[in-house]
Design a protein that fits this description.
RNA-binding; Isoleucyl-tRNA Synthetase, domain 2
RNA sequence: GCGCGGUUAGCUCAGUUGGUAGAGCAUCCCCUUGACGUGGGGAGGGUCACAGGUUCGAAUCCUGUAUCGCGCACCA
């Protein structure tokens, strides 16, 4: 027996070598898998790794992603599939720019004072440097992905694919440049899609103001300067004497104005006084009303959230500062009817910084989503993609049923530049991949290059086929559509649903057969981890303290699909003990079977060992089905239980007696069983705890042994 | 407001088609047993949120209630 088993298991010594050995073997690359392993199956199996944001360090959630996928991938590889796990890194547009802006802020700099080109180069450098750290960290979780195929979302070929999709959308009339009301973050100074917005409940004063003969109500008096339309429901009996289009003069914030009566059934008669004034430039509902009646629209608040000259004496002020002053003025003018101080309502905020979203009218590129969504719905309803857990299917179809056009323009430098030209004169947008258009086709006006970049999800929505080299590569032909998309439930709309729509649109196929969604990794108390709370668990601290295997088990066991997991250090500690237990089981088995080799042709089993063999085999069938059905938590727990409480506590104990007092045949049989059960357990546990199993495997007395990672799955 | 999910041992959670409740950790007691004290043996602890219903039988199916969490939509 190797002397290493005389000491307790030391994960630090083992882990640093094993990953290198795996890498050197080349088996992470499906093209290098041995023929005899593939002979039994050989079908391709593919997981595209969700491209990791290259702007920070790995967090516990990444740990979970890597572990779940690695377990499945290692299992499939042992099952003889031509297994590809394709790793990727994400430039993560807006997310990364925010991270970098914070860094700039600390250094006393600001993106708004920088040349766009210089800023881009700095962020690129930052991202590339970080990418290397991230890769190292992914490796340290034991991820058996094919690094030779690593893709970055800004790689030339990816950008090329994204551009051709953009062009195709335009050619198919699914893309347009529209001047519409969009969500705008005054802090980050970019527009968003509807998904980057978070609702937040706030209690704010609510003002009832006198507007001519009416009382209108608002929580946003600072938007009201330009309001010159007063809207009510056509059926509202209280206001029958007012006719649509009637005009009246009234005193307003900054002097007399002429107001026009508008009748529109969007008005809720039950709410407030049933009358409101509208601010089409800064409110989506008002914008719609203005469109219906062809009303004028005027901007009141600028991109930085400051009031424009229309606000008169308040021009240049920020909203928060101006609001009380405006109310003060309205009070002096006798235009305030009453104020409700405790008005509870939801306001839209930037999901990243919490700044109140200021809707603005802007020209942006929009993708018409309805036609794409309809096709996706058809396929989803036909069961062509399986959701795990299945309630995500309903969540998805509901979202698709109510989908709105997707604003893919972002006013940030960090991203893929939109290959288009804009006419200065008439605002027409022209898709221009070759950068050759010079004159507007509509008005012959001069064109300028669009300075916006794509929403990062527009490019990552194409990731499965783009990363595989669509349309001509062998990889695309072999590995697409992929088998499993495993990612966080949080990005079901952002990413998963858009991949389905865009994948279907471009390739005609949903890019994956199964969607597996995991929940959040929370701290030991079940609270969301956040830097500000200081409860962030760094995976690398845990792996160095307890071992990667222990960390992986801690993430998997007790974690059901879609639900969040409270991760405690004690739990991980318990699985460190498990790795050591396995180590000691090996020590006992190897000393007990000295001189004996595993013989798969052995048949002279004792009655007792026949029973034990049966039990073990039924466990294997059981856990194989668990893995196939994504019950990793259950497979892991059953294997843990078997190794510790069946093999160690019972079988090993009982073997002491058999080996001492049994007949020659009984002893031989038991030695074979000990070897068979241990090697089998090592194989079955390998996907879960790859390091310690691979290390032990080196010393197993097995003929024609390969690396454990490419041994055949035992059932 | 609409929809979805949870509510099981002190804690974190399992419980796959209905058949007298399980795991890990924690607690308590015992064991210097030659694989392992990162160990072994044993114990305590649950009216499975509540109220009805279906059934020979319900943690599991149905209805309702409470409560927590999430998603979507919102009225200015």
């Amino acid at each position: 027996m190797n002397e290493k088993f005389l000491k307790p298991y030391n994960h630090l010594e083992v882990e640093k070598n094993i990953y290198e050995e795996w890498l050197k073997s080349g088996y992470f690359n499906p093209d290098n898998l041995p023929k005899d392993l593939l002979a039994k199956n050989g079908k391709p199996f593919t997981i595209i790794m969700p491209p990791t944001n290259a702007n920070g360090s790995l967090h516990a959630g990444h740990g979970l992603v890597m572990t779940i996928q690695d377990i499945i991938v290692r299992y499939k590889r042992m099952k003889g599939f031509k297994t590809l796990w394709l790793p990727g890194l994400d430039h993560a547009g807006f997310e990364t720019q925010v991270v970098y802006e914070k860094k700039l802020e600390k250094e006393g700099r600001s993106r708004f004072e920088m040349e766009p080109k210089k800023l881009y180069e700095e962020i690129l450098k930052f991202t590339l440097e970080n990418s290397e750290n991230i890769k190292t960290q992914i490796k340290s979780i034991g991820a058996s992905c094919d690094w030779s195929r690593t893709k970055f979302t800004l790689d030339d070929d990816i950008v090329k694919t994204v551009y051709s999709t953009f062009k195709k959308l335009s050619d198919d009339d699914l893309l347009y440049r529209g001047k519409k009301i969009i969500s705008w973050c005054p802090k980050h100074q970019t527009s968003f899609s509807d998904l980057e917005i978070k609702d937040e409940e706030k209690i704010e004063p609510y003002y009832y103001l006198k507007y001519g003969p009416f009382i209108i109500s608002t929580s946003r008096p600072e938007t009201k300067f330009g309001d010159k339309y007063v809207v009510m429901h056509p059926d509202d009996k209280r206001y029958v004497q007012y006719k649509h289009g009637d005009k009246f003069d009234t005193e307003w914030i900054n002097g007399p104005i002429t107001a026009t009566i508008i009748k529109d059934s969007a008005i809720d008669m039950e709410f407030g006084t049933g009358v409101m004034t509208i601010t089409p430039w800064h409110d989506p509902v008002d914008f719609e009303i203005a469109l219906r009646h062809k009303l004028e629209k005027e901007q009141v608040i600028d991109e930085r959230g400051k009031l424009l000259p229309i606000a008169g004496e308040f021009a240049g002020m920020g909203i928060n500062k101006a609001r009380p002053l405006i109310i003060e003025k309205l009070k002096t003018k006798g235009l305030v009817d009453k104020i409700d101080e405790n008005y509870k309502h939801n306001i839209k905020t930037c999901y990243k910084c919490g700044t109140t979203i200021e809707p603005q009218i802007k020209s942006q590129w929009f993708v018409k989503m309805k036609p794409l969504a309809l096709k996706a719905l058809e396929k989803i309803k036909a069961g062509e993609v399986i959701y795990i857990p299945d309630q995500y299917e309903k969540i998805t179809t509901h979202w698709l049923d109510n989908i709105i056009d997707w604003n893919i323009s972002r006013q940030i430098v960090w991203g893929i530049p939109i290959p288009a030209k804009i006419c200065d004169k008439c605002g027409t947008g022209i898709v221009d991949l070759e950068n050759k258009e010079e004159k507007c086709k509509k008005c012959n006006g001069s064109l300028r290059k669009d300075t916006d970049t794509f929403d990062t999800w527009f490019s990552s929505g194409q990731w499965p086929f783009a990363s595989l080299g669509y349309p001509d590569s062998n990889d695309f032909k072999t590995f697409y559509p992929t088998d499993i998309m495993e990612t966080a439930g949080e990005i079901i709309f952002f990413w998963v649903s858009r991949m389905i729509m865009l994948g279907l649109y471009i390739t005609g196929k949903i890019p994956f057969k199964t969607v597996y969604l995991h929940g959040l990794v929370l701290d030991a108390k079940g609270k969301k981890m956040s830097k500000s709370k200081g409860n962030v668990i760094n995976p690398l601290d845990l792996t160095s303290k307890y071992g990667t295997d222990a960390f992986r088990m801690g993430l998997i066991i007790g974690n059901t699909p879609g639900t969040s997991l409270a991760l405690s250090e004690d739990k991980i500690k318990g699985y460190k003990h498990f790795a050591n237990k396995l180590w000691n089981i090996t020590r006992f088995v190897l000393t007990s079977v000295e001189g004996e080799n595993l013989d798969r042709t052995f048949v002279k089993w004792s009655d007792e060992d026949i029973k034990l063999n049966k039990e073990l085999n039924s466990l294997l069938i059981d856990i194989t089905s668990d893995i196939e059905n994504f019950r990793l938590y259950m497979a892991g727990e059953k294997l843990y239980h078997y190794a510790w409480h069946c093999l160690a506590d019972e079988i090993l104990e009982q073997s002491k007696k058999v080996l001492k007092e049994g007949t020659i045949d009984e002893i031989k049989s038991r030695k074979q069983f000990l070897l068979y059960s241990l090697t089998t357990v090592l194989k079955a546990l390998h996907p879960f705890i790859p390091y310690v199993t691979e290390e032990i495997w080196k010393d197993m007395p097995v003929a024609n042994k390969k690396m454990l990672m490419i041994e055949e799955w035992p059932v």
